[in-house]
Amino acid sequence: MTSTTIDLIYFNAGGGHRASALALEAALRRQTPSWHVRLVNLFEVLDSQGKFRSVTGSAPEDWYNKRLARGWTLGMAQELKLLQAAIRLGHPFLLRTLQQHWLHTEPDLVVSLVPNFNRALYQSLASTLPGVPYTTLLTDLADIPPNFWIEPGQPQHFICGTPRAAEQARALGHDAKRIHATSGMIIRPEFYESMTVDRTEERLRLGLDPERPTGLVLFGGHGSKAMLGIARRLAASTQLILICGHNKGLAARLRQLPRTAPRLVVDFTADIPYYMQLADFFIGKPGPGSISEAVQQGLPVIVVDNAWTMPQERYNAEWVSKNGLGVVHGSFRTIDRAVAQLLNGFDAFQASVRRIDNRALFEVPEILERILHEASASESRTAALA
To answer: With contact defined as beta carbons under 8 Å apart, do 158 and 174 qualify?
Structure first.
């Protein structure tokens, strides 16, 4: 008996798609150990000969990630339209390349954790391996129509982490039976583990004041220059833990800034849950993964929503406000007022955070099992009628 093969499609733009894929891989290996789970980097499939890298000297995602680190996000809504037009123009190439990939790899179920490419991914799979179910797992709290996450007219499955996303799929005419709701975003298993951190002892060990309210500042795996402004504006008033990811230059500059309040600068670490356990609140961009992780750890959040906010993250700030999970400002220039506002209403914000019960990591494997079961039953019915 052959094992069931599940392909998880991701890419490294921004890091969140890969993080979600790794989290889901870990959950599937634990909950469905008989399945063979494969992580598939979409850009490596599309550039299997390395031509893009040989011409540019880097992977397609590298330039995007450098922009995030420098805060060059203004105008991304317009650039998204250009990217989507280029993807449409390149559809015949994408189709041929992906068809060859599916014929060679023969998965039993494909789960896409990437936006923009779902038309080509679905059509290539349906034309080469008919009957193999295709699922898009949104790693954003909502879609940004048209053609970002949810493609109309494709008889495929969607896994949606908010009522807003499920409503968007229904509005585009998708069958309610193929729209699967979860209680939140996919986050890593470590964020569900019980931790017995002695906050007083650990803060002292790291040079922090155990009695002061502490903010954790995080802007993804590549950091952001916005962290410099936040650190300067809060240097005299607020104790901070600043996690810089792979951005060593940023970490060095943060360590050199003058300060009055204690400050801890952390280079790349996989132990984000540990540092969240030492903090009282979160400061960062409204990324779906970061704010979901913070809320899972019981931290109210401070985020901004403005012209520099990436289009796929704008609904996230609305979600924070709607659910009373923290404070949304128009700029980090007012971060001192945002912190004061959060601390003044801290008990209410924390109570709202505690009401969120995100079990998506454990719900998605069960959804995928049902999808496979239904596909198998449909195939059996078709064979019986033949």
So the answer is: yes
pTM across the whole model:
0.90
3-state SS, residue 227: helix
**Tens digits of per-residue pLDDT, 321-379?**
999 999 999 999 999 999 999 999 999 999 999 999 999 999 999 999 999 999 988 77
Q: Residue 107: is the preceding peptide bond cis (ω within 30°)? A: no
User: Cα(353)–Cα(47) distance, rounded to whole angstroms?
Assistant: 42
133 & 68 share domain: yes
CA atoms within 13 A on the CB side of 208: 25
User: Do both 226 and 290 map to the same domain?
Assistant: yes
Residue 167's identity, in one-letter code, is: E
State both tokens at 282.
């979160």
Q: Are 110 and 50 in a shared domain?
A: yes
Peptide bond into 146 cis (omega under 30): yes
350 and 363, same domain (yes or no): no
Q: pLDDT tens digit string along 237-247?
A: 999 999 999 89
Tally of domains in the chain = 2
Task: Residue 76: give its domain's CATH number.
Answer: 3.40.50.2300
Tokens standing for 126?
């349906």
106: its two tokens: 């023969």
- Look at strands 179-181 and 157-160 and give their pairing: parallel
Burial class (CB in 10 A: 0-12, 13-18, 19+), 263: buried
- Positive or negative CA dihedral for 216, 269, 12, 367? negative
Residue 244 sits in the same domain as residue 307: yes
Provide CB contacts within 8 A for 216, sequence distance 6+: 240, 241, 243, 275, 276, 278, 279, 281, 282, 283, 294, 299
In a domain, 221, yes or no: yes
Burial of residue 353 (CB within 10 Å: 0-12, 13-18, 19+) is buried
